[in-house]
Design brief:
Number of strands: 6
Helix content: 25-40%
Number of domains: 2
Strand content: 5-15%
CATH architecture of the largest domain: 3-Layer(aba) Sandwich
Bound molecules: zinc ion
CATH class of the largest domain: Alpha Beta
Mean pLDDT: 88
Radius of gyration: 18 Å
Structural class: alpha/beta
CATH topology of the largest domain: Rossmann fold
Largest sheet: 4 strands, parallel
Order of helices and strands: HHHEHHEHHEHEEHE
Low-confidence stretches: none
Length: 241
């Protein structure tokens, strides 16, 4: 049920008067009301393989806690990815989350990773951060992924038990990042633990945050834990393969 019929009508009128423009280039009419065709194609897809995944995990010493990692795109300046991630995280453009999630899900569906039918679990924000932002961007990405893969989303499996410094804003190095998120996540009391979980985040840099979430899940008895992300600034070069 729409609780705000007047707002909905106003938006429809605005869409009629001002056709939605592309969130990246701002000057072309957007497909799906988010991104135009040219900007949607201006995203550098990473070529995933099981060997790539193993190389990435071993390069970042994550092989003990993660069984696989999938990153859909390179986080490269000049492509649409940095603009879209910024819009999603810092400009309140929630529509970008499911759009990115559908793109990731579409690429993921071509891999063998879905055979385990993992439950999608967004990397949690601290309750204070979620209140400030108004939403968890990783949850919105999960929703888009779920639309194309039919995987279930569980936002209530783990939570962030303390407020941590922003890894990106403070430009922490790998060791500082690991220390910063150590013991920052907990399993929700009473949560039922599924056999397979795919943790979802917007960006994976060193993997310290998603690795710490994975450690909690493994200790709780989850047999298979994967990590899925929209993009990584490290690209294919750091996969060590
Ligand atoms: Zn565009």
């Amino acid at each position: 049920m729409n609780r705000f019929p007047l707002w909905s009508t106003t938006r429809q009128i605005l869409h009629f008067v001002y056709p939605p423009c592309c969130l990246v280039c701002r000057n072309t009419r957007a497909r799906d009301r988010v991104v135009c065709r040219a900007c949607a194609e201006n995203m550098e897809a990473l070529q995933w393989s099981p060997e790539w995944s193993r190389g990435f995990l071993s390069h970042h010493s994550l092989e003990d806690v993660l069984d696989a990692v999938f990153i859909a795109f390179e986080y490269r300046p000049g492509t649409s990815v940095p603009t879209l991630v910024y819009d999603l995280k810092y400009r309140g453009l929630t529509i970008v989350g499911p759009w990115l999630g559908r793109r990731v899900g579409g690429r993921l569906a071509r891999t063998s990773l879905l055979e385990r039918e993992p439950v999608l679990v967004p990397v949690p924000l601290h309750v204070r951060k979620k209140r400030e932002r108004g939403y968890n961007q990783s949850f919105l990405i999960c929703r888009g992924m779920s639309e194309v893969t039919s995987l279930r989303v569980d936002e209530g499996l783990i939570f962030r038990n303390r407020y941590t410094r922003s890894q990106a804003a403070e430009q922490l190095n790998a060791a500082e990042r690991r220390r910063n998120v150590k013991d920052a996540f907990s399993l929700h009391p009473g949560a039922s633990v599924p056999p397979s979980v795919a943790l979802v985040d917007d960006i994976i840099t060193t993997g310290s945050t998603i690795g710490e979430c994975a450690r909690v899940l493994k200790e709780a008895g989850v047999k298979w834990v994967g990590a899925l992300a929209v993009a990584s600034p490290l690209g294919g070069d750091h996969a060590g393969v």
